[in-house]
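Colleagues,

For the teaching module next term, I've prepared a clean inverse folding example: a structure given as tokens, and then the sequence designed for it. I'd like students to try predicting residues themselves before seeing the answer, so please don't circulate the second half yet.
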């Protein structure tokens, strides 16, 4: 979460001057890990947990 938040801050400052690439092995985009217990309990779905969906990554990275 912190890595993507840092990228969001940088992109908000001057997005046209930067080109970003994010690499990772996670099968899902950035999700709210603090609320992971609600997912495991069945109170939320994975889609509820997503903070930056794949469209965000394609648009900005």
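(Answer key — instructors only)
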């Amino acid at each position: 979460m912190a890595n993507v938040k840092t990228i969001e801050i940088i992109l908000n400052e001057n997005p046209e001057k930067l080109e970003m690439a994010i690499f990772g092995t996670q099968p899902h985009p950035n999700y709210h890990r603090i609320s992971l217990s609600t997912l495991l309990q069945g109170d939320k779905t994975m889609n509820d947990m997503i903070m930056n969906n794949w469209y965000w990554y394609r648009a900005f990275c």
